[in-house]
Amino acid sequence: MTHDKLPSINHSEIKPLFERSLRNVREDIADNPYIQEALRVLTVGGYRSAIGCFWNAVVDDLRNKVIYRSLSLFNKSVTVGREMKTYEDFQNYINDEQLIDGAYRVGVIGWEASKVLRHAKETRHIFDGHPKSTDPSIIKVLAMFEDCVKYVLNEPYPSQIIDIDEYLTIMGADTYDRNEVAIANALTELPELYKTELINKLFTAYIGENETTVLRSNIEFATPILWRVLPKQLKIQVVRRVDQVMTRGNVGCTGRAFAFVNMVEANAYLTPTARNYVLKPLIEQLKVNLDNWSVENECVRALEPYASNIPYELLPDYVGSLTHTYVGYVGGSPQYSRIDFYANGAAAHIPQMFEKFDDAASVAFVDFVRSSKMLRRRIEHPVKLSRLRSLGNIVLSKASTSFQEKAFLNALVDEASVEEFFRSL
């Protein structure tokens, strides 16, 4: 007796073994003719035929699941020279390897299942496709059955994938369902291929000149939900499109491109060219509009999303302008019962922007405090020195342990060291 044959076992006694292994098959597929045929041939020792029949059941289930999931996505994922439209097209033009690969790409099966199913496919190829191969053992057949049940026949139908073009059309209507759960279910489980296509189409639609405010508003609502589940490389690819838009010279499209990046909080992925494009004019505008409160408020709000990503060469003017704006000036007015004046809107944001400082920005702050004659005049008034001290405390908390200007910052923030601080200027 060889290890591949068990002649001492009656074939009629084998059927219950396989019936037990099939208890986890989905109810809707339990009466599949391929599965029933496999059980029939097992009772007469038809192990080869049973393997072939069972594999046919797997292929049948995968085809139906792929069709239900998304035919259009399968056609984008698998290149066979023609478009699949019907079940018969799968029979006629898609081989088992292409089916497994396509099912994985559209999200019908996972990575582990795709590997196991390729092994099951080879089992079928060897024992049912080559009559001269050795007879498969009961263990071999049972193992193949259990793998197919676990990864395919016990798995429920996947959720249907949205048609991207149809979904974008719906987003352009007032009736679009702005429910976060519904949007997450529709967008976050998309296969990578669809996520790539969708996020790029959302970017294109958002920056377009002829899109409605309704569509842009709905994009602003839904895109951050999708963005959270995108891989880093895809995020970088989308943000780098800003540079392409800039070269076209359309200021409206460029502005909306930056707004899209702000919307998904992805400024860290902007190229140095893109950062300079948007930040340099804002910083220069803030610098030359000291004490012009409306301009200061507007500029600071526009700069805040980029507070963590200021180019090194812009740091001196950026830090200096924010410091001047926050400190403000001392004056008098018949309309206000105070002498401490500054741009209220800007001042509400600047401390949070200072919280993003690193050592380079901290050096820029120290250098500015030492060198600005205007600031020196203004902080001679205690109320203005107090405001500068507030910023100094933030900078001191953000500076690293090796920061070399801590003595200067300590003198600034210590109310008992006012004379020492002014001497250090």
Structural topology:
Elements: H1 11-21, H2 33-42, H3 47-77, H4 87-93, H5 96-105, H6 111-127, H7 138-153, H8 164-171, H9 180-187, H10 192-207, H11 213-227, H12 232-239, H13 241-247, H14 251-263, H15 272-287, H16 293-303, H17 315-327, E1 329-330, E2 340-341, H18 344-354, H19 359-371, H20 373-378, H21 382-398, H22 406-413, H23 418-424
Antiparallel strand pairs: 1-2
Helix pairs in contact: 1-7, 2-3, 3-5, 3-6, 3-7, 5-6, 6-7, 10-11, 13-14, 15-16, 15-17, 16-18, 17-19, 21-22
Summarize the structure.
The protein is an all-alpha fold and 425 residues long. The protein has 23 helices and 2 strands.
Question: In words, what does this structure look like?
Answer:
The protein is mainly alpha-helical. The protein is built from 23 helices and two strands. α2 (33-42) runs antiparallel to α3 (47-77). It is elongated. 32% of the residues are buried.
Q: Indicate the structural class.
A: mainly alpha
The counted number of beta strands is 2
Tell me the radius of gyration: 34 Å
**Total DSSP helices:** 23
Q: On the 0-100 scale, what is the average pLDDT?
A: 90
Strand order of the largest sheet: 1-2
General shape: elongated
The low-confidence runs, each spanning 5 or more residues with pLDDT under 50, are: 1-8
SSE succession: HHHHHHHHHHHHHHHHHEEHHHHHH
Intertermini distance: 98 Å
